[in-house]
């Protein structure tokens, strides 16, 4: 995803300096403005000072723990929180999400996966900072109202553009035909549901998806875009 990165602040909160440096180095190389805190109290103070769009927050930190930081920060700041932990317990995940966390990663993790999750959070929570979105081999340029695939511009009708964009922004999620109709054709659409099948076929032809491995059919549900 191409973003106005100089406007994006990311706060890393972890008491392990090597992890902080590893993440900080990678994010700065991507063009983000990165801040770091090593305990919960400093994290809350710094969050209020710099208003980060993303907080990468370890649970087991000195002072206020990650859960407390998450709860406190979410009261006053619009931010997306990705919680980090060495513990892979369902209860821990549920507790964090209930307190307002937006995503969850278990250590150890790859930087590539973390970056993908950051981009997803920015795309969903701060669309105003997005001008061009890269998802796998697809490139969405909302300004030009164009989508490219494998560096080739796709010739799309307005409906095809809107449908492909919607599928891409919901990459990985199974979407029912009704949901697709409501978002692309509108709630007052009175036509047949097979309109979705028709346009999915158009899109598959245009991106060469003969095996249906990119736009997948989910039996009994609808369709799922799967781009990695």
TrEMBL record:
InterPro entries: CheY-like_superfamily, OmpR/PhoB-type_DNA-bd, Sig_transdc_resp-reg_receiver, WalR-like, WH-like_DNA-bd_sf. It comes from the Bacteria. It comes from Clostridium polyendosporum. Residues 9-122 form the Response regulatory domain. This is Stage 0 sporulation protein A homolog. Pfam families: Response_reg (PF00072), Trans_reg_C (PF00486). PROSITE patterns: OMPR_PHOB, RESPONSE_REGULATORY. The keyword Cell inner membrane does not apply. The keyword DNA-binding applies. The modification 4-aspartylphosphate is found at residue 58.
